[in-house]
Amino acid sequence: MAQTLDAQKEVERIDTLMDKYFVNFDQAETAANHLYKLLSEKSQLYKYRVFRIDVMLQKAILYSLKEDHHKALKIALEALDEAEKYNFPERAYRSCWIIAIMYENGAEYDLCKKYLDKANVLYRKYKLNNVYSIYCVRMASYFIKVHQRDSATIMAYKALDYAKKYNNKREIRDANLLLGSLLAKHNYKEAIKHRYLAVNQFLDIEDFSSASIQLSLMATTFLRNKEIENAFRHSDSALHISQINHVVVNPIIYRIRSELFEAIGETDSAFFYFKKFHEAYITGQGALQNAKIKQISEQYQNDKKEAVIKSKDQLILFMVSLFVIIVVGTIILIRKNKEIRKKSKTISHQVTELSKTLHQKQVLLSELQHRVKNNLQHVISILEIQKESVDFNNIDELIRGNQNRIHSMALLHKKLNVSDNVQEVHLKRYISELAELVKESYDSFDKKISLHVNCTIGNISLEKALPLGLIIVELVSNSMKHAFKKRNVGIINIDFTRNEKEHRNELCYADNGIGFDFNKPCEKGLGQEIIKGLIDQLDGSTESHSNNGFELIVYFK
């Protein structure tokens, strides 16, 4: 019996330490671990089972305070199983609301509500009125998370009533904190009253940091309601309590002071406290990191001690698992690096392509300017020659011929403008569109002239494309004007081929019209002379036939 009472006293002692966890955390954790180990060795005895569940729930809360929520949830669920197995309804009730806290922290609100409902069933079934205030506090917190503030306020007031009735100091404080937050917007004076009560309780247990934070939040409430003097008074008190009790000033206190000074236009002071807030925040983050490192280090040492006790097979399994984790981590790291390199390469390629495109566009602009100048000079020269032989009877024909020559140049510029390569043009598309354009300019309803273009040559340089285009303009114009005067149906064939054996290109132009001797000088018109001049520009040679219509073969490099 004495041993049972000793276990009960130890559980109560750990509870007392946990009330001041902010200074007694390590001591409480050590005591809980030690007692849990002792009670686990005697768990077969019924009288120790209830205390073992108590310690399991204490360990769950301690794990939660260390933000190790996974372990906290695991041991709380185990405590619930044991409480239900051995029929300890009050411990099952406590397990449910502790599990609900874990799920609330993880934003799993449906599961949080599930275990709160289970706690409520236990409360009603076993009439656990003395601990009902805990359920009310947890429900109020849940309602806040799911944005049901009216329901949260009702549950917070109910929690305060039951906590006062059964003198549950922790729940009285929690209910006051909840009401201080919930009432701040619509009834700030009532909210301030509840925060004062919470501050006094924090001071009673020497939790000076929490008391200072509540005073700062009260300062914010006063600021929001234009009570600047009260706001500064509470902010000063918050800072004073932290400093005289040698506790680390919470960054929130500095941030709120910065907001207060900013509100009254004292920007220098506002900036000073904002810097203090930033420095304290960075320091706090560093402390958290150090705590994490310490926790990891301690966990490693504990695992190492346990590994020595375990069997050889378990040690090998541990090492294999560790190796697998390292290998998997390495593989993931390698893959990430590969992805980064791949993306970097892609970006570099895109930058190169963009630079190349920009350069091409710049060259294109320069080339277009140069070509326009040369082609205009070409048109001017032809017009100067034709001026001497102008005949008012054929002025329409003269204009149409020059229009087609200009179309030839314009189409070439168009092809150049949409091409990625500013030095070459796609020959078949250029000739097909150009020949069709010239034919359509002479088409009439009483004649049906078919045009066929075949080209096995891909791209060709601009220097050759322009004279070839003008040659086609002159040849198609001549065919449409003269070749089919005595017939209503005609065929024009244009073939561009590459003679690899002779290392030269060939243009074969043919129509089935009345025929024409290309080598015979023509007294009228300049078309024949223009064609010959353009062939000379290509350094080409010709071969012509007029047996079954007109055929001209131009050989060029």
Task: Report what the structure shows.
The structure is a single chain. The protein has 557 residues and is of the alpha+beta class. The protein is 74% helix and 8% strand. It is built from 19 helices and seven strands. Strands 2-4-5-7-6 form a five-stranded mixed sheet, with helices on one face. A two-stranded antiparallel ribbon has the order 1-3. A hairpin with a 4-residue loop joins strand 4 (489-499) and strand 5. Helix 1 runs parallel beside helix 3 (46-65), helix 8 (149-165) runs antiparallel to helix 9 and helix 13 packs antiparallel against helix 14. Mean pLDDT is 84; it is low at 1-5 and 286-298.
Q: How would you summarize this macromolecular structure in one to three sentences?
A:
It is built from 19 helices and 7 strands.
Give average pLDDT, whole number: 84
Portion of residues within helices: over 70%
Q: Provide the gyration radius in Å.
A: 47 Å
- Tally the beta strands: 7
CATH architecture of the domain at 389-556: 2-Layer Sandwich
Q: Please mark out the parts with pLDDT under 50 across 5 or more consecutive residues, or reply none.
A: 1-5, 286-298
Structural class: alpha+beta
Shape: elongated
- What's the CATH class label of the domain at 389-556? Alpha Beta
Number of helices: 19
How would you name the CATH homologous superfamily of the domain at 389-556?
Answer: Histidine kinase-like ATPase, C-terminal domain
The CA-CA distance between the termini, in Å, is 116 Å
Query: SSE order in H/E notation?
Result: HHHHHHHHHHHHHHHHEHEEHEEHEE
CATH topology of the domain at 389-556: Heat Shock Protein 90
The strands making up the biggest β-sheet line up spatially as 2-4-5-7-6
Q: The biggest beta sheet, please? A: 5 strands, mixed
Residues in β-strands, percent:
5-15%
